[in-house]
């Protein structure tokens, strides 16, 4: 009762403060926004999102990406087309996210639905990253298995936080866009920091040393699980787990087969699948001393950090200007600009930038920032819409299903890009066909414009899911992190 009165008093204080105006908004605006979210959603929700999205996925994901790029190129010495396919294999845990979502929704461990999965995923991340960092001359198959295990750890933590985001999007529908912005901003800030220092660490300690550093974000996930406070499920009927799985699957199928759901899901998959991923081919060209600009490890890290800045600017632009725009209009312009932005890569490979006196580094930085900003603007409204498609009771599982559709589209794009690189004979040292690969990719990027009839016409914030048949999976009403202040006070 006392805690509820304190929360209500804080909420009134925030409302009385009002939003900052004028030039003060540049400084106090973000603080006021965080304060508002902390009061309405509870501060622990904000802390959890920042920890998992910002530190584990943003910062850790940036180190992991650059480390894996150089690990495959310099340690395993694979071809770019092979590296593109292997990156898809290690992302498979993200495709089966509904499995992790079902586990967290219907199968508590020792009476808890969330805490054990945070703890176990963190431990899995620590063990897998330690193994690949300490093992010398690891076979490629074992390296792929270890990297896949690391991605599994991140995916399990991600789906648990996604459940909290989806649930709060249902209980606070007016804040759905704000919560997605919080996720995106945390991820972008973490990615910016991670990419900024990744090249330096790769140069100093190598890719295997970077994998060792990734044990720290993984350990933080376990810490979140230890601090998580949730009601313990008493006398849970484990003999009914099979029935609960079937009920959840039935509820997902009932929701998914509705036209308001499967149509935007189909668009999400196709728009990603046809936008071929050729990042490995571009990375090998970036670092080639003969035909490419021969960027150093530090330079590659800085380039990707500029991409993180672009993604951050995209999230800020969406939050402050574009979040209420009609969905089809947003997707039309962002998809069109996405294809046009890819032409910057074509100009770079053709060395057109040098004819205009623009250095390679500056041109790549501009292209990476613009591309990531447009990508963020393209997917922010779809993320908001996805959070509102989730039926109550299995929101974690269903949101994971929607994101797995997204990730399956990314896998299709990665494998399709690897096949295209192989067909056009782009190797570790031959890049004659890279310009054609880029051109084909850019043409395919604008094709999803023809599929915009699959998404709703209005803005995503106004969408309301109408589903009569929903699973009644018991879920804790309040999930919050234990206050460290309370822990200190109780110890006195």
Describe this structure in words.
It is a single chain. With 492 residues, the chain is mostly helical. The chain is built from 21 helices and 2 strands. It has a two-stranded antiparallel sheet. Helix 3 packs antiparallel against helix 8 (140-171). InterPro entries: BT1, FBT, MFS_trans_sf. This is Folate-biopterin transporter 2. Keywords: Membrane, Transmembrane, Transmembrane helix, Transport.
Radius of gyration: 23 Å
How many individual β-strands?
2
Average pLDDT number: 81
Classification by helices and strands: mainly alpha
What's the helical proportion of residues?
over 70%
Shape: globular
Helix-strand topology string: HHHHHHHHHHEHHHHHHHHHHEH
Arrangement of strands in the largest sheet: 1-2
Low-pLDDT residue intervals, each spanning 5 or more residues = 1-7, 467-492
The largest sheet, given as strand count, sense and whether it forms a barrel, is: 2 strands, antiparallel
Task: Please work out how many helical segments DSSP would assign.
Answer: 21
């Amino acid at each position: 009762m006392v805690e509820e009165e304190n929360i209500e008093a804080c909420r009134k204080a925030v409302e009385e403060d009002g939003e900052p105006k004028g030039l003060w908004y540049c400084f106090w605006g973000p603080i006021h926004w965080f304060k508002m979210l902390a009061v309405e959603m509870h501060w622990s929700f904000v802390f959890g999102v920042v920890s998992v999205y910002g530190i584990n996925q943003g910062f850790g994901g940036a180190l992991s990406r650059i480390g894996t790029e150089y690990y495959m190129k310099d340690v395993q010495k694979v071809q770019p087309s092979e590296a593109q396919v292997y990156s898809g294999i290690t992302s498979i845990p993200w495709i089966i996210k509904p499995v992790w979502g079902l586990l967290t929704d219907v199968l508590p461990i020792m009476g808890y639905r969330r805490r054990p999965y945070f703890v176990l995923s963190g431990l899995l991340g620590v063990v897998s990253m330690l193994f690949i960092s300490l093992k010398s001359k690891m076979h490629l198959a074992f390296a792929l298995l270890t990297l896949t295990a690391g991605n599994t750890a991140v995916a399990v933590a991600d789906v648990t936080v996604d459940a909290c985001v989806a649930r709060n999007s249902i209980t606070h529908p007016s804040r759905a866009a704000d919560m997605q912005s919080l996720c995106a901003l945390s991820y972008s800030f973490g990615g910016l920091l991670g990419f900024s220092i990744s090249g330096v660490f790769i140069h100093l300690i190598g890719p295997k040393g970077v994998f060792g550093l990734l044990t720290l974000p993984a350990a933080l996930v376990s810490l979140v699980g230890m601090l998580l406070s949730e009601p313990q499920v008493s006398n849970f009927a484990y003999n009914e787990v099979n029935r609960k799985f079937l009920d959840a699957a039935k509820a997902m199928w009932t929701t998914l087969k509705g036209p308001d759901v499967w149509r935007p899901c189909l668009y999400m998959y196709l728009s990603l699948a046809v936008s071929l991923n050729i990042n490995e081919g571009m990375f090998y060209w970036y670092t080639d001393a003969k035909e490419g600009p021969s960027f150093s490890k530090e330079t590659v890290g800085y380039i990707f950090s500029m991409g993180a800045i672009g993604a951050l600017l995209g999230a800020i632009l969406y939050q402050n200007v574009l979040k209420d725009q009609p969905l089809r209009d947003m997707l039309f312009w962002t998809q069109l600009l996405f294809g046009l932005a890819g032409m910057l890569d074509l100009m770079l490979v053709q060395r057109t930038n040098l004819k205009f006196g623009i250095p390679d580094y500056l041109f790549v930085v501009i292209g990476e920032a613009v591309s990531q900003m447009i990508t963020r603007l393209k997917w922010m409204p779809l993320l908001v819409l996805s959070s509102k498609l989730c039926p109550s009771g299995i929101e974690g599982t269903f949101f994971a299903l929607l994101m797995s559709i997204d990730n399956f589209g990314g896998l299709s794009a990665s494998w399709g890009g690897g096949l295209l690189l192989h067909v056009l004979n782009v190797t570790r040292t031959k890049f004659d066909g890279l310009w054609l690969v880029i051109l084909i990719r850019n043409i395919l990027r604008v094709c999803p414009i023809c599929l915009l009839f699959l998404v709703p016409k209005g803005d995503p914030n106004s969408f309301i899911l109408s589903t009569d048949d929903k699973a009644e999976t018991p879920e804790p009403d309040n999930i919050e992190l234990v206050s460290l202040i309370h822990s200190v006070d109780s110890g006195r």
